[in-house]
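Design review, sub-item: ligand-bound model
Attendees: FS, YL, KQ
YL presented the inputs for the zinc ion complex:
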Amino acid sequence: MRKLFILIVFIFFISGCTNERDVSYISEDNEYVSISYPVTNINILDEEISSYVNKTYYEFKNMKYADKPELNISYTYKEINSDTVNVSLKTEIIADKKINKIKTFTYNKSNKKFLTMEDLINDLESLDYEIKKELLEKYQDADMDYLSNVSYDYFTVDDENLTLYFNPAEIKSNHDELIYLDIPLDSLDLLIDIDKSKDEELYFSIKKKNIAADDKVVALTFDDGPSKYTESILDVLKKYDACATFFVVGNRVPFYGDILRRTLNEGSELGNHSYDHKLLTRLSKEDFQDEVNKTQEAIKKFTGFTPTLFRPTYGGYTNALKSYTDLRFVLWDVDSRDWEVKSKEKILKNVLPNVKSGSIILMHDGLKYGLNALEDIVKDLKNDGYKFVTVSELLEFNKLWDSE
Ligand code: ZN
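KQ shared the predicted structure:
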């Protein structure tokens, strides 16, 4: 039954909307699952992407595991030039064994053709030796025999580098992380044009709110975005002159720079919710810091804003994790359970009777029912005399429900 439901969800996501940018699915029912993938509106590419994601999900569902298993799929999306799109999907599975793998797609719209490294680089053969030499230097346990058969199927392009990826089994390395090699674009004889990212306007202004000492205040928080619903959430907030704090997932940030800048400009705040939405309590100190720092960098790069707040994924954390970052951990005291109840009325019942001044309400960006309930929540609380503030403002006014 559950498998069928997931399949229906995916099919709905793919066919339901035409102007959406990506798909996200986060679940913690019997497992920790976080799946994000882009919607390019190029049919053949979108079919390839969703069929890969579905295949990976079923592979995960059929794996054996001792503890609650975990699946994380995150993505990059890059318009290499006006005609060519590059998408990467990184998968991490934590079950009885740990699997890291990558899939990339490069598609040329005019020729209606998926591109390979041969289409991008002139005389790949003469580069082959250099690549293998560098791989052996970087991954000294790699097996030379395996390396000689290695293919260049997986690559991404950014403004500086062409990055080659190899699944660990391909070069018989003991690394359980993905193996990659950055090659500076300047050093390559390229067969296609590569457009640099446009420098976008990063300006944002923080709107100050007038709050008096005896005002009743409340902070709405949205986890797991940005998503195809973020703009609709912002529309509701704007209509009622309200605001929220959005704890965003880092790998989704680059695709939504414009919406995140709008979020800030309309008086809301951005917080950090990790890069890949992994369960943090399973990470080493270095991996945890990597999840935090990559998200800080992405938000700074695409909005100019530097978050000071962190919300742990699945609400799971330890005191050790808290000590590994300067960001302030923020939980909540009112839980809408919007991901679970899937009904506007139940969400309202979970929220409205439980709010007091200083409350932090947990909701999720990316859920239809949550969006449906939002307008009633905002209207009702405003009628009750509440003023909406960001979590940072709650801290500033010293009215924070004690989340620690
Ligand atoms: Zn989350």
